[in-house]
From TrEMBL:
GO cellular component, one term: plasma membrane
Species per Swiss-Prot/TrEMBL record: Lentzea albidocapillata subsp. violacea
Protein name, entry field: CopC domain-containing protein
BP terms from Gene Ontology: copper ion transport; response to copper ion
Residue stretches making up the CopC domain: 25-117
Taxonomy of the source species: Bacteria, Bacillati, Actinomycetota, Actinomycetes, Pseudonocardiales
Length: 188
């Protein structure tokens, strides 16, 4: 009986200290262009691949250069665990940063960045003669695809059912201890 009293708390403690795999957060596993890549031609589409499916409607992606030049970002779509991000490149050769904020399947907001270098300046060709229309000055703020507001969950990571299981476990251990003590005093 004493062994049982020693084993039950150890089992309970091991259950409390292990983290279930489902509580892991979404992580970026690859990108195109890759982190630190040097590209000669600017990409027309970015690909961000994660370890689990993500929600494109809860995703924000921006691309900015070291000089603050922002690329235009099109409608973001998802294919399996990858986000496909059409972009319209702008700016000179140099370092560019892809910043992303995604809404994952477990409703956590995940942010990150991928840096790459464009080695050749952006080549623009004009086929039509220039016109004399007046346009509004362009903004240097990053363009973003429309998304839903993603709220970050600042909890400890345990869901309500995990706390319920912990409470049931504590009650079961306490009940077993009381029952074993009563049984020991009755037989003495």
């Amino acid at each position: 009986m004493k062994r049982l009293l020693l084993v039950l708390p150890l089992v309970f403690l091991s259950v409390l200290t292990t983290t279930p795999a489902a509580s892991a957060h979404t992580q970026l596993i690859s990108s195109d262009p890759k982190e630190g890549a040097q590209v000669a031609a600017p990409p027309q589409q970015l690909t961000l691949t994660f370890n689990e499916p993500v929600r494109p409607e809860q995703t924000t992606v921006t691309v900015t250069g070291a000089d603050g030049t922002a690329w235009t970002v099109g409608q973001i779509t998802a294919k399996d665990a990858s986000l496909l991000v059409p972009v319209t490149p702008a700016g000179p050769a140099g370092l560019y940063t892809i910043n992303f904020k995604i809404g994952s399947a477990d409703d956590h907001a995940v942010t990150g960045a991928v840096k790459f270098t464009m080695t050749a300046p952006l080549v623009t060709t004009t086929t039509a003669p220039p016109t004399t229309t007046t346009t509004a000055p362009s903004s240097t703020a990053p363009s973003v695809a429309p998304v839903a507001d993603v709220q970050s969950d600042q909890s400890t990571g345990l869901t309500w059912w995990a706390w319920l299981l912990i409470a049931i476990g504590v009650a079961a251990v306490a009940g077993a201890v009381v029952w074993l003590r009563r049984r020991a005093t009755q037989s003495a």
